[in-house]
Design brief:
alpha+beta, Outer membrane efflux proteins (OEP), two-stranded parallel ribbon, disordered N terminus
């Protein structure tokens, strides 16, 4: 028997086609608000007019002036602006192996899959059922078959089609909400990339700063050691008192005491670099960092303030969450309206497997169901009110996120300006205290100064040297903070390709 012979000979009425046509026409509307992206804030400047477009400079590596460039945008690989091959290699490895990024990409794929799964509600559901049974009927009752046989086999083959037309757009609003969640997850993935790269660059700068501070501390220890040796010789000759020697011994011990905490911080920073790279602390990164090899970018591409809301991942996440809240209003509103369902069943039933679609054996049903909630104690109404309140909350949170974004940029810009001045002053202080220390040590050799002057000069130079190193690193860190506040640059990722495909599908559905 051919497949055509197995098909039921009775045809569904034309009313089924008419019902589908009417449902398709009626599904063109969707209740609830249509989402519109918030208008970018009409802000012309990141900060007040007191902010200079160029920072001051200092006569030292890392003290170059920096100029704000509003006509330029950051590149995708923004960290390359520091011109450090070691830093570039470290970040490339970290982006390829970080478990944080793997988790974020998996979360994006999950959100996309859930959205695509919900889109299946736009189409009818078709199921097939095959049953086979052997039965014994009681002779007390009438035989269930058209014959008098009480023992028989029964075979059934049927298909069922069920379809819920999206009369008021409730399904589309659900898909829209899931699309918003997928968009939010996409930008959370971007935020994960930005956070990881920023943390890696900051940790590299911290390592370079600690190495410079350790070198400065060792220089101070060396100066204090030589000074103590001189005091001891002078004490042996009776030129100074034992008090002078003890004071210098205390100064040397204090200088040596400052070294272990710096070494501890350096080791912990190396552990941080390993962890950020997706490695265990025992698998130390091969790259090391010094302040002298990290170039301070002279030009800072900041772009226009109006474009900040496009570049900041957290702002885009807040926007996507606002979209979700908007769609949920339509979902709750559609649940208060009539729900229409179409069900069609066709098949065949026979005591012989090959006779299920013989004359008289096929069967079919066509049913329509219209349901409307008449009383639920206000449940659906208050769910709608809750969704509207959630939208207002998301709108306020979006505005707060935008304001915070501009605050972050302004803070970073003022930090660049202030820390450039601080480095300039720190370099001058270091030079002055070094001259004072050299003159004091020369006078000490001649016995022309007491121990208090030597200790004071050593302490002043030590403080100035460490302050200069910290200020030098601060300018690099300020640059990273600015790039992070700007949202850095968009880069090409596999997760984006998935998200772009989802966006195109969503637009076709819309």
């Amino acid at each position: 028997m051919t497949l055509r012979e197995w098909m039921p000979r009775a045809k569904p009425p034309s009313g089924m086609a008419i019902a589908f046509a009417i449902a398709a026409l009626m599904s063109g509307c969707a209740v609830g608000p249509n989402f519109r992206r918030p208008t970018p804030p009409a802000v012309l400047d990141y900060a007040r007019p007191t902010l200079e477009v160029q920072t001051s400079s200092a006569e030292i590596v890392g003290g170059e002036p920096q100029r704000l460039r509003f006509d330029q945008q950051l590149s995708a690989h923004w960290w390359t602006i520091f011109e450090s091959p070691a830093l570039n290699a470290l970040i490339d490895k970290a982006l390829a192996t970080s478990p944080t990024l793997v988790a974020a990409e998996a979360a994006l794929r999950q959100a996309v899959a859930l959205k695509l799964a919900q889109q299946g509600a736009f189409f009818p559901t078709v199921t097939a059922l095959v049953t086979a049974s052997r039965q014994q009927a009681s002779a007390v009752l009438s035989p269930p078959l058209s014959t008098n046989e009480l023992t028989y086999n029964l075979y059934t083959l049927q298909g069922t089609l069920s379809f819920t037309p999206d009369l008021f757009g409730g399904i589309r609003r659900q898909v829209e909400a899931l699309w918003g969640l997928a968009e939010a997850q996409r930008f959370q993935l971007e935020a994960a990339y930005l956070t990881l790269s920023s943390n890696l660059v900051s940790a590299a700068i911290q390592e370079a700063s600690l190495r410079a501070q350790i070198a400065a501390s060792r220089e101070i220890i060396d100066i204090s050691t030589r000074s103590l040796a001189l005091f001891r010789r002078q004490f042996e000759l009776g030129a100074v008192a034992r008090l002078d020697v003890a004071a210098q011994e205390a100064a040397l011990a204090q200088a040596q005491q400052a070294l272990p905490p710096l070494q501890k911080q350096l080791e912990q920073t190396r552990n941080l670099l390993a962890a950020l790279s997706g490695r265990f602390p025992s698998d130390e990164p091969a790259e090391t960092f010094e302040l002298a090899v990290l170039r301070l970018p002279p030009d800072l591409p900041v772009g226009l303030p109006s474009a900040l809301v496009e570049r900041r991942p957290d702002v885009r996440v807040a926007e996507a969450q606002l979209h979700v809240a908007s769609a949920q209003i339509g979902v709750t509103l559609s649940s208060r309206l009539p729900q229409f369902t179409i069900t069609a069943t066709a098949g065949g039933l026979s005591t012989g497997f090959t006779q299920m679609f013989a004359n008289g054996n096929p069967f079919w049903t066509l049913a329509g169901n219209l349901a409307q909630t008449l009383f639920d104690g206000g449940t659906l109404l208050y769910r709608q009110h809750a969704a509207e309140a959630a939208f207002e909350q998301a709108a306020a949170q979006y505005r707060s996120t935008v304001i915070t974004a501009f605050q972050n940029v302004a803070d970073a810009l003022y930090a660049l300006q202030a820390d450039a001045e601080a480095l300039k002053a720190a370099v001058a202080a270091e030079q002055a205290t070094k001259i004072s220390l050299d003159l004091t040590l020369s006078a000490q050799q001649l016995g022309a100064v007491n121990y208090l002057a030597v200790l004071s000069a050593q302490q002043a130079y030590r403080q100035a040297l460490l302050t200069r190193v910290q200020a030098q690193a601060a300018r690099l860190s300020d640059t990273v903070a600015l790039f992070q506040a700007l949202g850095a640059g968009w880069s090409s990722r596999a997760g984006r390709e998935v998200a772009d495909t989802t966006t195109q599908t969503h637009e076709r559905v819309q």
